[in-house]
Every structure is written in C-alpha cells, then in structure tokens.
Amino acid sequence: MTFSDKKVAELVNANFVAAWYNRGPGFHNEDYSTEQWIFTSAMEAYTTKNICTFFLTPEGKVFHYVAGYYSPDVFLTYVQVALQLRSAAFDEKMQLKASGPEALRNVHADVVKIIGKTEKVIADTLKEKDGWKKVLADYQTYGYRNVSHKHTQACANNLHEGYRYLTRLHKHWGEVKELPTLEDVQYKYLWGNPFTEESPGAKPIGWEGGNMENVRRKCACD
Amino acid sequence: MRTAFACLLIASAAQAQDAKPWALYDRGVRWEKSLDDALARAAKEGKPVLFHQLAGDMDKEGC
User: Fold this and answer.
1) Range of the domain at B56
2) Four-residue CA torsion sign, A22, A25, A28, A34
3) Assigned domain for B4 exists
4) Which of B20, B39, B50 has the most A C-beta neighbours within 10 Å, making it the best mutation to test the interface with A?
5) Residue B51 in domain
C-alpha cells in the first residue's frame, strides 16, 4: 500500500534509488490475517522489527533507518526527514561533507525536539474523552485488499507508539559519531515492537526496542 | 497534530516538489533488481539509496 501510493512513489523516485530485500529468501506470506489486523488496528504506524527502511550513501554507509510499517502519510514525513539529512550533510554528488557528521546530529536533535513535543501532545490528547478522534483527525484512511480502514482508538495508540519510537530513534542517531555500514546494522537496529515473521533461512533481528540501556547492554554482549 | 512536525519538513518537501515526478513509474516506486544495482546507479546519479528490508516478497505482497 505504502509504496504504491502516488505521492510516496513520486517522492522516492525523484530523490532516491530504491531497492528491496527479502530477508527470508523465497518467503512469501500468503496468510493475510496478520496483515489485515495491522491494517485495521495500526494503519498509521506499526513499529515492528520485521520491516526496516534504510537510507544509504552510494558507498553503502547508513545515514538513517526507520523500522516498522507506516501509512503513506507517516512514511512521507520520515522520507522528508531523510531528505533533510541528505541536504544538510552531503554535497550534490552525495559525498559526505567535512561538516556532515555534525550536521546529521543537529538535524536529529531538531527532529527530537519537534517529534517529542508532538508525542506529548498526542499523549495528552489521548487522555481526553474521544481524544483518539482528535489525534487522527488529519490522517487519511486508505483501502487495502478490498478492505476499508476506519480509525479506532487502537490506531491512535499505535500512532503514539510510533512517535515514541521515532523520538528514541532520533535520539540514538543524534549520538552516532561515524556512519555504520549496512552490514553493521542490517540485522541489528533499534525497533519499536517485537512482532516479527520468521521463515527458514531468515536471520533474526537483534537489539531491543524499548530501552536504550538495554540496547547498549545487548549490543555490548554481541 | 501533524502541523508542527510538518513545519520542519517544508524545506525538503519544497525540494522534492521541485523535482519532476518520475512519469514512467507513476504506479509505484521504481525498484532496482538488487542493492548492488541501486548503489551503482546512486553513485552515477549522486543520489541516496532507499533500501527496504522485509520478510516477504514485494512483488507479491501488494506493498
């Protein structure tokens, strides 16, 4: 749904070279019940570790990633963050500027401030009667596999979890001194929730989702 | 709710809107056949790579 959205496709095709990878070689899920559950209750954001979108330099260094599934609305915002990172830190040939690492950290710090505020507003609004309706008022609904989505309290809760995850993620990236290679992080990245679909031959995804101390401890043990 | 976050993104959004839509691929994202192909094209065109990893087949999952 996300990648067939016209706005997403135009933004990605105009600014990135795209590739995808099946980490369970040959795996194809033909049981759509889980997909439909996510579509029904977490259409805006589902921070599963099962999916990750990496943003890479042409040399294969990772300058950002985001784990999880997101609706076109939300996906567009984080692709735009990736474009901000690109503009701030790289030259027109996509080479890292001398000031690039610091510029990346500054963008992440700015994003943390803004997303952190938004996350707090969502949290406060969710405490109000029918607050979830206000939270989702600006978010479109989509159709998928002949099913129409209707916003629910669960959608708003999952969107809030998405913002909490993104805040943690940008805080993490704000501390990164040197860009990792894809090999460094392809199976060991910060995710929001532990749902996954494993298949024969799939490498498991490492790291913890909830607590940065756990992330560091786990990482040090590996 | 999304307004504050969107403000941060105006500059990059404007940059994206200035770029011509990829008319030939207006039905979806244009995927290279492999990461190596994507990296090679990215180096040639001076673009970043968007690399989407999932447990599944994008050609069949209806993404």
Assistant:
1) 24-63
2) negative
3) no
4) B50
5) yes
Dihedral Cα B49, B50, B53, B57, nearest 10 deg: -100
Domain count across chain B:
1
CA A219 to CA A7: how far, in whole Å?
37
B5 vs A contacts (CB less than 8 Å): 77, 114-115, 118
- Give the predicted TM-score (pTM) of the model: 0.83
d(CA B60, CA A77): 26
Say how far apart CA A205 and CA A68 lie, in whole Å: 12
In a domain, B10, yes or no: no
Query: What does the pLDDT look like over B18-52, one tens digit per residue?
Result: 443 333 444 689 999 999 999 999 999 999 999 99
Contact (Cβ atoms closer than 8 angstroms) between residue A136 and residue A151: yes
Residue with tokens 């105006």: B10
The string of pLDDT tens digits covering residues A151-199 is 899 999 999 999 999 999 999 999 999 999 999 999 999 999 887 777 7
Reported as a single tens digit per residue, the pLDDT across A99-124 is 999 999 999 999 999 999 999 999 99
Q: If you measure CA to CA, which chain A residue comes closest to B21?
A: A10
Residues of chain B contacting A14 with CB distance shorter than 8 Å? 16, 19-22
Minimal Cβ distance to A24: which of B8, B39, B55: B55
Domain ranges of chain A: 6-21+31-221
A26 pLDDT above the threshold of 60: yes
